[in-house]
Amino acid sequence: MSGPITSARRAARARMYTGLSWAHAKVRGDEFSRLMLTTGMRDPCPHYRRLREAGPLALSSSGVWAITGHRLCGQVLRDSRFGVRTVPYQRDAQGPLEYQQGAEEDFSVLGLDPPDHGRVRKLAAPAFRPKTMASYRPAIERVTYELLDRAADLGSFDLMAELAAPLPIRVIAELLGVPDEYSGPFRDYGAIVAKSIDGSPSAMNVPELGAATRALEELFAELLTRRAREPGNDILSQIAADHAADRISPREVLALCRILLIAGFETTVNLVGNGMLALLNDPEQWAALNARPELATAVTEETLRYDPPVQATIRYPRETVHLAGRRIGAAEPMYVLTGAAGRDATVFADPDRFDIRRPARADHLAFGAGPHYCLGAPLARLEGEVFFAAVPARLPRLVRDGPAVRRPMMALRGLARLPVRAG
Ligand code: HEM
Question: Which site in 96, 178, 229, 308 is 20 to 30 Å from 273, CA atoms measured?
Fold first, then answer.
């Protein structure tokens, strides 16, 4: 993994979570390509609007299909004629996939098409069932209140560093069953690997990424061996049992552990950060949450619509398809701009207003749709609900305390810093 960066390797990395490839950002001046420039990363909405003027499906001058319409985004994500890969995996026999191409090939559920996708997804699904989710609530509340109490003592602090980043990392480490003595290395290596999932060159430090990926996999392998010997009531013990029963290959095991660990690092973090930024920018909405903390669920959903952590994903038609009056050839990349779908005025009234009291809520597509619908959505929702209810309880006079800094990412969207004062 530590060899020179190639476009194939970069594309494989990029596909890991969002499916996006920077190779597609080719033509300067093209509306789609502008999404990957600094101004587009700071605020993609003007570009979404201009792309949408060409209809719900636009062919950018860089030759890339961009879907901005809410209905069409949902339709493509649910349509079995579209997949996440341009070519199927090479395989010698039926059954679990073996390690053939390289560590950077995406063997996680996100990078698999049927039939492998369904088999691997089914193995992780029990961890996210409603009954299991309810059992996670006490741990999430404990971690949330611990972090808030520590932040309250600091007075002025960076909300991203003190609250948004540690929350999902500590929660997923607990749920996976990562023992305390491993939590430091898991957090540090996981953060490096997670940074690469936007696929942007600025997020890539290839040798560092290769070393962190290997180190993370070694830690998981060690922990899985331990859990196979002494099972606990955690997700890794379940995966170790599936592995022992030959339902999942060694390659898939490590890819599954890795995606479960890092999926929340770059997403739930930004649900918390983007939501707090929107609330603190609008004193009337912040006051409404303070008066009625039960609006926490609505804050979570409105943040996911208004400023979602995942702005886009990619699909490839398996065959020539006709969509919205256009002919699209097999394997042509189609960017599904779910961030734009949340701002579609035909579905959401006054879409550019952050409003936690919106009456009826259409599905915002922030967790995708169809077969790859986010497995961790119930967990992310629960973390959002607990967090946005706990902040007014512990930090009711919280205010902004300096400029927020956006991270230079396109498919993922979040803040590097959000300075605040406990008031
Ligand atoms: C606010 C937080 C989150 C957001 C916005 C989010 C968003 C998404 C989206 C949009 C997809 C679909 C991508 C596609 O169709 O190409 C996805 C898939 C996935 N997410 Fe999340 N996610 C979040 C949190 C989590 C968490 C906490 C976990 C696990 C601990 C998780 C695990 C996964 C997995 C395993 C998949 C792949 C599902 C599949 O391919 O079948 N996510 N997520």
Answer: 178
